[in-house]
Amino acid sequence: MTNIGLRPDSVLRETAPRRKGLATRRKVGNIGKMARVICIANQKGGVGKTTTAINLSASLAVSEKRTLLIDCDPQANATSGVGIDQSTVDRTLYHGMLGQVGAASLIMDSPIASLKVIPANVELIGFEVEMMSSPDRDRSLKNLIADLDGSFEYIILDCPPSLSLLTVNALTAADSLLIPLQCEFYALEGLGQLLRTVERIRRSLNPELKIAGILLTMFDKRTNLSYQVAEEAEKYFKDLVFKTLVPRNIRLSEAPSFGKPILLYDATSTGARSYIELAQEITQTEGDACNEVT
Length: 294
Ligand SMILES: Nc1ncnc2c1ncn2[C@@H]1O[C@H](COP(=O)(O)OP(=O)(O)O)[C@@H](O)[C@H]1O
Ligand SMILES: [Mg+2]
Fold this sequence. Notes:
This protein is an alpha/beta fold. The chain is built from twelve helices and nine strands. Residues 49-50, 73, 77 line the site of magnesium ion.
């Protein structure tokens, strides 16, 4: 298995235990509710970030949590995956992050009533270049979502496959980071770099950033490799690894082409069940965390 060059003690030092790790949330509205902002990142492509962003958001939404999915990737797969045609949206996250429009005016409906979306399209590539010399460039997303106080219980950020300025913005705006790990060769490779970025962001932009957890995706119980990746992840990350495993499931890969979360495409599939379970695991953690702060 890959040596990822991690120094587990130092990397995880700031990481609260699973049951406490998500206690930091911003206070929103005047009802004392906290919105939880979860960033889904891994600089590797194809590990299940977007699939997780869409289906975790949908699962939270059907469990009666007001949820906002923000597509932070110029490839805009999360946008199209919830049935929004990116070529027809004229105002996207790009305009919000440049400060041209407020977040509320960017919010669009999805096929699930309680799930809203801030879409992206390819224009978002320009953000990096245009904000290059702006001193506030790392905080554009944080500033944008500050407008949304009280409107949502969960905000899920789908990141591009890089550690670019867009990902830095997402990590700066988030309370916690969920890292999908594909059960494949070299799964853990590059994680050291991601976690060093987390440490850097904690030191400068977002001291409260937690690790929400490591999510094993595309788990195939017929292969030894999947078990090896799971074992390796547990060795490094211990109880930060979510109990929920997302299986390799063809229905999950079919759903985006119908512009639907898996719950609307095939609610009985193993993929759908796994994301419902993940949402439960996450909301239960919140329940515990709430007890602590009250
Ligand atoms: N659990 C899964 N089972 C089968 N296919 C999956 C699963 N998760 C993701 N995929 C497919 O793998 C590809 C990459 O997933 P995606 O979520 O787009 O990754 P990322 O956003 O990290 O690039 C997509 O074609 C997606 O449909
Ligand atoms: Mg993606």
